[in-house]
Amino acid sequence: MDPNFRNITGDHHKEEEEEEEEEEDDDDKLLKTRISSHPLYGRLVENHLNCLKVGSITDSGRNSKPNQRKADHYNNPYSTMLNQSELDLFMEAYCSALCKLKEAMEEPQQETIAFINAMHSQLRDLANSNTNTSSVSGNRN
């Protein structure tokens, strides 16, 4: 086989691969643009950030009910529309999944906080009753 033929076919194969990669890059850019300009994109980012906030020290005392009401407003914005695009369905499902993930992550944290608060209250009550008992027994002597 002629070495020049190998070079030509090899170069042609490399060009095809580069063209395919460029097409994939263009498709990726188009998809990213479609996602970032989608009406649910802001909600998706907000839900993602809310998931990341779960467990942070500054977020531990916050009540998530106001955020939940806001999320409920968006739960099914496209549910009445027929012929939803695949992107619409994906965005809606992903936002819903992030909401459920956040709730699932918050539940054990809230249980832990309630347990710690109960233990703190019991320890405070014990300390107060111990102080009162010492005062009463000191008065008897």
Q: What's the topology here?
A:
Elements (H helix, E strand, L loop, with lengths): L2 H34 L4 H13 L11 H10 L11 H55 L1
Helix pairs in contact: 2-4
Unreliable sequence segments: 59-64, 66-82
Mean of all residue-level pLDDT scores = 78
Classify the secondary structure makeup into a structural class: mainly alpha
Q: Rg from C-alpha positions?
A: 30 Å
Quaternary structure annotation? single chain
Largest sheet: none
Q: What is the overall number of helices?
A: 4
Backbone shape: elongated
Secondary-structure element pattern, one letter each: HHHH
**Termini Cα gap:** 114 Å
Give the % helix: over 70%
Counted beta strands: 0
- What proportion strand? under 5%
In words, what does this structure look like?
With 141 residues, the protein is mainly α. It has helices at residues 3-36, 41-53, 65-74, 86-140. The longest helix has 55 residues, at 86-140. The relative contact order is 0.08. Mean pLDDT is 78; it is low at 59-64 and 66-82. Helix 2 (41-53) runs parallel beside helix 4. It starts with a helix and ends with a helix.
Please name the defining characteristics of this protein.
4 helices; 0% strand; mainly alpha
Brief account:
The chain is mainly α. The chain has helices spanning 3-36, 41-53, 65-74, 86-140.
